[in-house]
Amino acid sequence: MSIRSPLVPALLAAWLLGALPAHGGPVLERIRSEGTITLAHRNASVPFSYLDPQGQPVGYALDICKRLAQAVQQKLGLKTLTVAYLQVTPANRIEAVAQGQAQMECGSTTNNASRREQVAFTIPHYITGARLLVKADSPVDRIDHPQLKKVVSTRSTTPLAALRQAVRVRALPLTIVEADDHEQAVAMVEKGQADAFAMDDVLLYGLAAGRTDPKALKVVGQFLTTEPLAIMLPKDDEALKKIVDDEMRRLIYSGEILGIYSTWFEKPIPPNGSPLNLPVNYLLRDFWKYPTDKVPF
């Protein structure tokens, strides 16, 4: 004879609720009630997040975000989920997510300690480092080259902070100029208004590939930084973060993310149909063996 305790159903229900992502988080509840998820994107962070010739947001990070949005839709049991887009800049991207204007930022944002005070991040989708973009005929090949006098970097970025630190620590005789966005910085190098553009090397390769004459520019120098790039999320919804982290791990372990990567780094991409020819680097390949959102920066 078995005795059925009245506590068993309650305990079972509690366990089931604990095993599922909580639907009561503020961000998830807003997505559920509005039936819309907003993805923040950039205008010139090639190939992560940028505008194609038709003005549509495209890129590697955006393709990943679309997969993450599908996972949110499935977990919430929504028949449809509208994906809206919000263009942001390096200066306002963190504020856009922190203030709820977007639920994910799909670009080339570095996950670091100071930013984690305002927002959350998922597992990195790329690991890179800052180098220099110069004209193809420039003799400059390092940050301390004697002919390097003026360097531009994009406002509110980690490469800009690293550049300032290098100048201060090494007492380099450099003038640092801030650009509003990557496009402006590249144009300054092309016009001779700056000798070099300091930014994540993968972005520099992408920006150069998108110019009218890609061979007119080159990427040089050693890494000034190590940058784990990740999708940015609101800080106040652990349930949303769990869904996103779980889906990122699925994409990595299944190998699906490699197909997305190949599309944007190894095949022809807009606007010129030129491939970047950048296979997965060893830093990212090693990191994806044990994917985590915890980074030592």
Automatic annotation (TrEMBL):
Family: Belongs to the bacterial solute-binding protein 3 family.
Entry keyword set: Signal, Transport
Keyword Ion transport belongs to the record: no
InterPro entries associated with the record: Bact_solute-bind_prot3, Solute-binding_3/MltF_N
Residues of the Solute-binding protein family 3/N-terminal domain: 36-268
Record-given protein name: Amino acid ABC transporter substrate-binding protein
Domain of life: Bacteria
PANTHER family to which the protein is assigned, alphabetical: AMINO ACID ABC TRANSPORTER PERMEASE (PTHR30085), GLUTAMATE_ASPARTATE IMPORT SOLUTE-BINDING PROTEIN (PTHR30085:SF2)
